[in-house]
Amino acid sequence: MKHVFSQLMILFFTAILFSCFAKKDESPVIPPVTSPLSRDYIGFGVITASFTHIMADPDQNSPSLGYLRRGSLVRILRRQTVKSGGVFTSWVLTEGNQQGWLKEEVLSIYETESQAKTASDSILK
What we know:
Layout: H1 2-21, E1 43-47, E2 51-55, E3 64-69, E4 73-84, E5 87-95, E6 100-103, E7 107-110, H2 113-124
Antiparallel strand pairs: 1-4, 1-7, 2-3, 4-5, 5-6
């Protein structure tokens, strides 16, 4: 039994040794050109709810700065997840006619303005 155990240990360490020297094909990680890190905004959003309030802060109890209607197009500057009452909610900071915070659930996010414009046009038909 002792002999079998020692053979297994030798086999195990040999496998580890060979795996350390095995040639690995490594390629550098290159972020896509459209990465959110490469620009000053995340994307564009189209309001999908009938209407929604623009909040001063990412909080349901924050003062309302105005509202947006279904089909409105906004530029999204930042995304933030906030925990309130044990529930996590995603908010986005928008830029447009009025800058403020919207719950992410009230809009659809697109990578380019042309995609968002097409979605907005189809919603408004």
